[in-house]
Design a protein that fits this description.
The complex is a heterodimer of chains A (55) and B (376). Chain A is of the alpha+beta class. Helix content of chain A is 24%, strand content 25%. Chain A has a two-stranded antiparallel ribbon with strand order 1-2. The longest helix of chain A is centred in the N-terminal third of the chain and has 13 residues. Chain A is elongated and about 55 Å long. The two termini of chain A are 24 Å apart. Chain B is 54% helix and 14% strand. In chain B, strands 1, 2, 3, 4, 5, 6 and 7 form a 7-stranded antiparallel sheet that branches. The longest helix of chain B has 46 residues. Chain B is elongated. The N and C termini of chain B lie far apart (87 Å). Classes of the chains: A alpha+beta (55), B alpha+beta (376). The interface between A and B is large, with 31 and 51 residues. Strand 3 of chain A pairs parallel with strand 5 of chain B.
Amino acid sequence: MKSTYEMLKKSRKENGKRLVRGEIRRPDASEIKKKNLIIFQDDGSLKEVELAHAG
Amino acid sequence: MILTPLSDNYSSPPWKIAEFFLTLGLGLLITMWWRAPDSIPQWMDIRWFHGLSMLVPYLVVRLKWLQHKADSKSAAELKADQKAVVNALNTMPPVHAMETFVDAYTQVLADKRIVSDSDAPETEEQIKEHIKALKSCVTGCLEAYANLYVQFEYKRRSGECHVHWLPHSYIEEVNAYPDFQARVLSKIQFVDNPDNPLLDIDGVLHVDPAFTVVVDNKPGNASKVDSGVEEMYLPMNSDRSNDTGNGRCFPVAPMALKNEDMVWIPNAEKHITHEYLRSWDINMQVLNDLYDYFRTKQPVGSVIANPLVYGDTKLGVVVIFTQNSDSKDGRAVVDSYLTLCRPLFEMQKDIVCDIVELESELKSRQSDSPRPEEVS
């Protein structure tokens, strides 16, 4: 584990690798971590649903 | 079958005229049959009369049935259209919410540009000023989420909306700076091990009154700081191999950041109970403290938590809540609201990344220790 700053540096470095010779490589659908919505249900269970724009 | 392929609309004027004459003919035939045989003309064969007596009622009944079928179909189509319109109205941002979004986005972007375009800070004082300016940009985002929440409804349900930004720090960062660690130890709550609060935790979330906003639903009212907030740190508990329930990161913000998913509790009174909280792998004392917190110290009705994560970096959680329950008309509306807020969430991520860099620089200067990349 690292500090937030170190993690951020790493994330930015990884993101920066998408730019190669002026070409921006957009992440594939499989590379994008989709954010879901966890809903608390009346019966106490948790329901996970996909969001329209999972950002 | 007769009449079937002729028209799609048996209620149109020509068919109404046909229906009129057929009904008239049917009445005539009944009268003739009643007064038979005197009323049947001499020239008409009795077999023709019987044939007409069967054909005309058939045509009348058939026409009526086709009309009914066509009417039912159009009624079903109308109902489906109405449902689509109602759904669109529920999930479509009202015009004033869209205006708020555009104004807020433009304003925060302009503020952020001013900070970015100014000279790079050199002294500690300048770094602090930059951080202060960037923090005001974050507050601008929080105000926008709150305003959009209360405006994103046609039928007013939410009295007021509270938004908190809870920045996240990894445990390594807490341990790296003694002053920071002392501050965390003095303010941390809901820990499993009160004797050693930092044991088995991956990080902390900071509930900072400066990063809170409350907005009511009266038009033109300015936002204010949420006065009921007590400064504290929430633990991001690490996983244990013997956990059997929903994990050790309890609702709402720690759970959202741990899963990197949004969390929505429509009705906290129903969903945050002793019984449900037992599903988390936390001890009884923490469970009771959490229950009291949601019921008395920070009453919550509906709540949405959105974790902001950049790459693998967990930046923090935006918590949006009202004190009344079921403040949104279902999941589709919450989804639509979050979609509208998304550009602001993305911009907030950028601002927070800049804050993290500047705070790291400041901490390293204050502690006289070089930043990690300078070491490597």
